[in-house]
Amino acid sequence: MRDSAAERSGGVREAAAVARPAPGDPRALEGEVVRLLHRDAERQALEALRDRLAGMPDGADKARASETLSMGLTVKDRLEQHQQRERGLMAVIETAQDLTRIVDIDEVLRVIVRRARALLGCDVGYLSVYDPERRDFYVRATDGAFSERFCTIRVSLDTGVCGYVARHRSPYSSSDYAGDGRFNHSRFIDDAMRGENIASILGVPLLSADEVSGVLFVGDRYVRAYTAWEISILSTLGAQASVAIGNARLFEQARDALARAEETNERLSQQTANTRAAAEAHEQLTALVARGGDLPDLCEMLARRLGGRVAVCDEGGREIVAAHAEQGVETPAPEGRWIEDAAYAALGESRRTGRSVTYRKLRTVCAIVGGEGPLGGLVLHTPRPLNEVAARIFERGAMVTGVVLLLKAQRTLSLMSDAPAVLHGLVHEPRGRSERFAQQAEKYGVDIHRPMTLLLVRTGKDGCASLCRQLTDRLGTSSALFDEAGDSLIVLANTLRMEPVRAALQACLRRHRETFVGVVGDAVGHADGLPKSFERAQCCLDLLDALGRRGELFDESRLALYVPLFNRADAAAIEGFFTATLGKLYAGPATHDTRRTILAGTLLAYLDCGYNAAEAARSLSLHINTLRQRLEAIHALLADWREAGRALEIHVALRLWRLRDPQRFAALDTQAVKERESFDKHAAPGR
C-alpha cells in the first residue's frame, strides 16, 4: 500500500513538472506578472521583466507576453494612483478628525505640515501665520528644514511668495524660486531659502472669514512642477489649518472669558458647542467632497445642518439644485426656477463684500466666486435668523460648492476644448476649407451638410462668459457650437434644432434685461455661406445699436430691408432720415405727441394694406370715416405723401420708425378707443 501511494505521489510531481512552463517560456513571464501584482511588488520589478522578454524568440507567444506585461504595468500605475488618492483622502479625514479634539494648536499645525509634506513627497514643509500687531507673517510650524535661520523668517504683505499669496488669496507655485520675477524678493528671505537649497515652492492661503490667517507651503530642493491634484489637496489641508487656527482662537477667548467671571460660563459652553458644530460641519463638507459628493449631496447636507431650504443658483439667478431639511432634494422644474430679484441683488452685495448677506430677516445668500469671476450663489430660507456659527457654516458651504462647480466646469471645458476653434474656423475660414471641420462639428451636434442657422448676441465681454457657462449647463455639449467673439456670443446650430437652442438662450438672457441685442440669421445651406451670414448678422447688430434697440432677439429677415439702406449709419444719420422724409409728421424721439404718432400708425397701416382704406380701417378697428379724416390730417402735414416716389420713402421711414420705437406704436392699440372720440373732434393738429 505504501509503495503504491509513493508511486502515485511521484507521478503527480512528474506531471506537475511537465505542466510547469520553462523559465524562457512566455507563459512563465505571464505568470510572473500576475505574481508580482499579487505581491504588490515595486514597478521596477515589473520593468525588470522586459530583459527576459527581449531574450525570447519572436512569435505570437512573445507578442502576447509583451501585451500582458504592458497591461500589468498599466494596472500597477492605476493601483499607485488609487493608493495616492487614498492616502490623500485619509490625510484629509484624519486632519479633519483632529480638529474636533484640539488641545495644542502648535501640535495640530505641525501635524498638518508633516502630512502635507509626506503626501506630496516634498523636501520641506512649513506654515506661516499672520501677526496682526506687526502686520507680517512668521513661521510657526516646519518639517524637513535643517536651518535655524529659515525658522525665523518674517515676511511682510508686499514681499515674497507669502505676501503674494496673501494679497491675491490664491495658490502660487514656482519651479525657479530664485529667478522668479512675479513677486518682490528680499535679500534676507532669499538667503534663508538659499540656505535650505529650495528651488521649487508651492503655497496656498489659509482663509479665515474675510482675511488671510496664514500660508501653507511645501518646497523641493530640485526643479519640480506641481500638479492640479497636489494644489487641490494642499488647499484642503490649508483650509483645515485655517479652521484649526480659528478654533484655537475661539478656545483662547473662552478661557479668557472663564477667567474674567463666572457669569460667562453659560455663554462659553454655548460657544464651545457652536465651535464643535462648525468643526463637525467642516469635517462633513470635506469628507463629502473627498469621496466625490455632488451638488445635491451638498445641498441636502447644508439644509439638514442649517434647518431650512438651500438652493444653488447659477450666475444668472436660475436654481440648479435645491434641497429641504425635511423633504430632501427637490425635483427640478423643467424650465428651471429663478430666484427673486431681492435675492439676486443681495448676491451682488455678497460678491462685493465676500460675506453672506441677509435680506427679509429669514433669507440669506452667499456668492460663489472662483476662477475668473462669479459662479453663482447659495440661497438659504430658515425659520429663524442665523447666528454667527451658522452663517460661518453657510459661507464654508458656499466655498465647497464653488470647488464642486469649478471641477464640473473643468470637466465641461475639457469636453469642449476644441469647440471654439471649430466654430471660428467655420465662421472665418476661406471658402472650400470647411470640410475639415465636419467631423469635429458633428461631435457637438452640428451637421455642416444640413441647413444651419447662426445666432449672434451682443451683450458685452463679461456677459458673454456668463452666457457660455449657462448655455453649457442648459444645452450640454451636443446641441450647438457657441463661443465668445469680442463683445458678442456666436451660436451655431442646425436649423431644425435652432428653436430649442434659441429658447435656452432667451432663458439665459432673462437676467441681462436691457443690456443685450441679438440677431438670428437666415438658414444657410452650406458651411461656405457662414462667413457671409456672420457679416450680415454683424451689420444687423450695428443697425440695432444705431436704433437703440435692446432686450430682444431679431430675425434677420425682419431687418433685411434696412441693412443695405442704412449700413454704417449712426443714430444721428437715422434721425436725419426721419426728419427729412416724414417732415411735420415726425414727432421726434424725445417728444410724446400722441396725435402725430397715431397719424403715423394710421398711414403705415394704410400703406401696408396697399392703399385699401376699408382693409386699413378693419386692421385699426376704426370706422371708415374716421380713417378718411385721419388721412386728411396726414395730408395737411405731409402734402406729397401720395406721390409714387415719395410713398416708398415714407413707407420705409414709417416701418423703420416703428422698429425703433415699438412701444409707442404698440400703445396705439390700447389707446385707440380712448383717442377715437377726441380725435374725431380734432381731425387736424392745431384746429
From TrEMBL:
Q: Where is the composition biased (Low complexity)?
A: 12-26
What range(s) does the GAF domain occupy? 104-255
Specify the signal sequence span.
Answer: none
Keyword terms of this UniProt record: Coiled coil
A Pfam family of this chain: GAF_2
- Give the span(s) annotated as Disordered: 1-26
Coiled coil (UniProt feature): 247-278
Regions crossing the membrane: none
Q: Which InterPro entries match?
A: CdaR-like_regulators, CdaR_GGDEF, GAF, GAF-like_dom_sf, PucR_C-HTH_dom, PucR_C-HTH_sf
**Family assignment?**
Belongs to the CdaR family.
Q: Which named protein is this? A: GAF domain-containing protein
Record organism: Castellaniella ginsengisoli
From the broadest rank down, the organism's phylogenetic lineage runs: Bacteria, Pseudomonadati, Pseudomonadota, Betaproteobacteria, Burkholderiales
